[in-house]
Design a protein that fits this description.
Blueprint: H1 6-29, E1 44-49, H2 53-67, E2 71-76, H3 99-110, E3 115-120, E4 128-129, H4 145-153, E5 176-179, E6 200-203, H5 206-212, E7 220-222, H6 227-236, E8 239-243, H7 246-254, E9 258-261, E10 276-279, H8 282-293
Parallel strand pairs: 1-2, 1-4, 2-3, 5-6, 5-8, 6-7, 8-9, 9-10
Helix pairs in contact: 2-4, 2-7, 3-6, 6-7
Length: 295
């Protein structure tokens, strides 16, 4: 668009916006409305989801709102092909959820009083298909993942309050806990300055840890047997730093002191509530860590 005057640029912007609105309306007209109410009057509400695991965490406020006072039965569809391109690093060998994913996630969800079932989808009845939002022509690189479900079902929840609760592992009370996936990294961000801070533990995949240890040589690594153990570590830490991946979803759900590395190309994670920070520039990152550490 170099060389265009302000009026030409405005025209192009308006035309693009108008074209998007037409495509949005056309796509909506071809879609049947979603199920807005449970299909039965049973004492439990049944949900289906195929991941990603971070998306499942962000779907919990919607599940609670839709279930009301009834128990949540979550049925997870495994072995769906990855949503990521082949060039993007991701575990599970090209699948979104596996049987192992469900084994890891179930202890965390079943520790919550609202959940009665977290299992693999087979032939269970379903009240709400939580993957239906993907059919709708919304820009899913924006907004807040939690609110994708709110838009879908006409519901709301206070996202400034915790929607996960676990017993903190207080052995991590002096630790800065960090996680950084290969996806959703902000350009120009370095973690090297964290070398000056003692007691830093990485939670995440081994290859992610090895990559982060290049910046922080004394970085420790903690592997876990399941995500309940994982959540207890995050709940008990001094504060948490992560990018837009599953570990930050857990930190956000717990409302611990947390710092998010925001990806400007896909800003669909929005920290809400007390002690919640996000950054996409290096000096601000270092300032937030310094003030969080000494307060």
């Amino acid at each position: 668009m170099n060389g265009l005057n302000i009026f030409q640029r405005l025209y192009i912007a308006v035309f693009k916006g108008d074209a998007k609105r037409k495509l949005f309306s056309k796509a909506l007209s071809k879609l049947p409305p979603p199920e807005l109410y449970p299909k039965t009057e049973a004492d439990a509400v049944h949900f289906k989801h195929f991941g990603l695991i971070g998306d499942i965490i962000y779907a919990i406020p919607a599940m609670k709102a839709l279930a009301g006072n009834k128990k949540i039965h979550l049925h997870l569809q495994i072995n769906q092909d990855s949503l990521y391109s082949k060039g993007m690093k991701h575990h599970n060998q090209g699948k979104i959820l596996t049987e192992k994913s469900v084994e890891m996630l179930a202890p965390l969800l079943l520790s919550q009083p609202e959940f009665a079932v977290c299992d693999i989808l087979t032939s269970q009845k379903i009240d709400y298909d939580l993957d239906e939002f993907r059919k709708y022509p919304f820009d899913y690189n924006t907004n807040h993942i939690c609110r994708w479900y709110f838009h879908m079902y006409g519901i709301s929840a206070d996202l400034g309050k915790p929607w996960l609760n676990v017993e903190p592992d207080n052995s991590y009370k002096d630790e800065i806990v960090i996680a950084r996936s290969f996806r959703y990294r902000a350009p120009g961000i370095s973690y090297d300055f964290l070398k000056q801070y003692p007691n830093i533990t990485f939670v995440g995949l081994k290859e992610e840890y090895e990559d982060m240890r290049k910046a922080i040589p004394d970085l420790k690594h903690k592997s876990v047997s399941n995500f309940l153990e994982f959540a207890k570590i995050i709940a008990g830490c001094r504060f948490f730093i992560g990018n837009q991946s599953f570990p930050f979803a857990v930190a956000e759900a717990l409302k611990v002191r947390r710092i998010l590395e925001l990806c400007f190309e896909c800003p669909n994670v929005i920290p809400e509530g007390k002690d919640a920070y996000d950054f996409c520039y290096q000096p601000q990152f270092e300032k937030i860590v310094r003030e969080m550490y000494y307060r």
